[in-house]
Amino acid sequence: MNLIWDLLSEKPSLWVSWSKAEILRGLSLWQMEKKQGLSVTWKAILRLRLCVSSNLVYSVGLNSSWSLWFDPWLHSMSLVERLGTRAIHDTGLPRDASLSDVIHGSNWSWPSHVWQLWDIRHESSLIRIEQRDRLGWIKPGGPFSFKLAYESIRPSSSIVSWSKVVWSSGGIPKHTFCLWLTFLKAHCTMDKLLRFGVVQSSLCPFGCGQDETVDHLFFDCAFTKTVWSKVMKMNNCRLPTSWNWNDTATWAVEHTVGNHFRFWIRRAGLAASVYHCWRERNNRIFRQSAATTESILARIRSDVADKAALNRSIRDSPANRSIVTNWDITESIFRNPIDELSHEQRYTGSNTRQERQRRRGVG
Q1: For residues 142 and 138, what is the distance between their CA atoms, to the nearest angstrom?
Q2: Where are the transmembrane segments (predicted)?
Q3: Where are the domains of the chain?
Q4: What is the pLDDT of residues 17-63, one digit of tens each?
Q5: CA-CA distance, 305 to 168, in Å (whole number)?
């Protein structure tokens, strides 16, 4: 997309000059036809033209050089695509006509005898003619943006309520990915494998005698419930009355979103619990090895504590100190008093000009 933008905006670069001389050879990018001998890059460029055209905003100037028939200047669509090549013959205008050929003064002037142009005449009358041509991305005169280009091609959907639980800063990537799959209920649990005919039984591998589903595994199973309940206690959270995943997800949305340390460590604890319980489940199925709940908890504590020590700097308060002690996090995570003072001044505005003058004995 960026290369197409460079071509259309005539960026002063060697590649653009070479492409216009050797590939386009006087043709508009929109006139270029697909050929077998083109490079992979150029085949991709031609394939993306339709997608790019939907993001372009043409501002028409008095002496516009935009192609009348082939540039997608009207509602992101070219006239030849909308009317067909027959319209070119009927109007008597040349194939290489520009928009300036249908502009007289500051008004549009379309051939009146061509019925195919009646709708075009009305729609173009709503377009204001400016002093010069301008090409914009998404908005008039807007520069090309990789972010906006990416958003224009990726599938879009409504934001889920748990997005900030999963996709927040300071997470451990493999834990985050596993938690995302859990919210989507995309894990290949035994109940799914039984429906696919892969296994003969859907019993939970932790030996609780229940069918394994996502709701059961996180954290209705006796084994995983023990792990999760201890993590909740380390976070000084009240134990839930219902342990299945739907209720756990609801709790997470309501009690883990925010920038405070207690919210971060709840998210980190949840993601680590899901990851290590899923890993232990796989070890029991594929490696025939079993760990105790204490071993699982030690791995969770180690991962979360190490991540907290590396990425967090928090206020030394009784609530935070209690959580830090529960998780065996090094006390270097606390801000020292000088940093705490500067942090408060930054956000409360206490370090005003008058205060600084008073300290220096001025005024």
Answers
A1: 7
A2: none
A3: 2-153, 163-347
A4: 999 999 998 888 998 888 888 999 999 999 999 999 999 999 999 88
A5: 17
Exposed, middle or buried, 79 (CB in 10 Å: 0-12/13-18/19+)? buried
Instruction: Supply the pTM of this predicted model.
Output: 0.66
Within 10 angstroms of residue 242's Cβ, the number of other Cβ atoms is: 10
Question: Could you read off the pLDDT of 219-273 as tens digits, one per residue?
Answer: 999 999 999 999 999 999 999 999 999 999 999 999 999 999 999 999 999 999 9
Backbone angle region of 303, left / alpha / beta, with phi > 0 → left and psi within -120 to 50 → alpha: alpha
Cα distance between residue 202 and residue 285, in whole Å: 12
Summarised one tens digit per residue, pLDDT across range 347-356 is 344 445 555 5
Q: Give the residue carrying structure tokens 């900030």.
A: 164
d(CA 52, CA 76) in angstroms, rounded, equals 9
Give how far the C-alpha of residue 199 lies from the chain's centroid of Cα atoms, to the nearest Å: 37
Task: Dig out the tokens for 77 from the structure.
Answer: 């669509």
